[in-house]
Amino acid sequence: MKRHYLIAGFIVLVAAVAYLGLWMYSAKWFSREIDRLYAGTTKDGVIFLGAKPQLSNFPFVPEVRYTNGLQSGNFKLLFPKLVLRGYPLPHTNLHLSFPEGVAMGGMVDEKIWNLQFLEADISIPYHLPASFYEEDLTAWIKAGGNITVKNYNATKGSLIAQGFGLLMLDEKLQPVFNFSSIIKGYDAFIATQKNANLIDPFAAAIGMSILNSLSKTDEATGEKTVTLSIIVQNQMLSVGPIQALPLPLIVWDKRRPLVLPQ
């Protein structure tokens, strides 16, 4: 019996040491990446609008919290809070959450381009862009760079979207999204947007008609759901067969050429 206790204690000790090693690796990885991002704020064309985050939540799943958002060129990503949780091993998942919402700003109206809630499980690629400079982003996409979103949940008013997909950049360094999604609450959402004069009444009627033709109704609840693709390509957002909105051009900063003394 004593031998069994010793074996069990040894196994627990090995597991604890292995987990501590994983946590230390995660802490070092997050600290290195955070330091690298903040050290390159001016030279990488990114402005962080919040205080430098710190790793927390030991001994549980590592967690990084950040506030306010970031800016690159004419693009802003704004949010009260971002929470990133997980172990940074290639092809494992990081859980990304904007529990108080997220919006795009600068080049678009953030009152329109926003979500009340967004969370996603993101598969960590082997390689990330070295910076947000145009040259490094170009090198990343030429190397096949993309980000897999294993699943996501988003809400905007009464609209609820759930699904999975892929994020990348095209040859012009503009975002390309391809998501398979289940949409709920679209009828009330379209009505609200129309009443707020954010959607033209004719466009709202066409959109409602198309989505109704694609929807299925739950016999028990009467709730309508639509399964369709949400795609961003060639600076156009398409929801199923509907070309919803054109997107403005994102301009990424370039490295300044080295000026040699005369």
Could you please describe the fold and organization of this structure?
With 262 residues, the protein is of the alpha+beta class. Helices cover 27% and strands 37% of the residues. The protein contains 4 helices and 15 strands. It has a 15-stranded antiparallel beta sheet that branches. A hairpin with a 7-residue loop joins β4 (75-85) and β5 (93-98). α3 packs antiparallel against α4 (201-214). The protein is globular. Mean pLDDT is 82; it is low at 258-262.
Keywords summarizing the entry:
262 residues; alpha+beta; 15 strands; globular
Q: What's this entry about, in short?
A:
This protein is an alpha+beta fold and 262 residues long.
What class, by secondary structure content? Answer: alpha+beta
Describe the main β-sheet briefly: 15 strands, antiparallel
Distance between the termini: 83 Å
Specify the helix fraction band: 25-40%
What radius of gyration results from the CA coordinates? 22 Å
How does the SSE layout of this entry go?
Layout: H1 2-39, E1 46-48, E2 55-56, E3 63-72, E4 75-85, E5 93-98, E6 102-105, E7 114-115, E8 117-123, H2 134-142, E9 147-156, E10 159-169, E11 175-184, H3 186-195, H4 201-214, E12 216-217, E13 224-233, E14 236-239, E15 242-246
Antiparallel strand pairs: 1-3, 2-3, 3-4, 4-5, 4-6, 5-8, 6-7, 8-9, 9-10, 10-11, 11-13, 12-13, 13-14, 14-15
Helix pairs in contact: 3-4
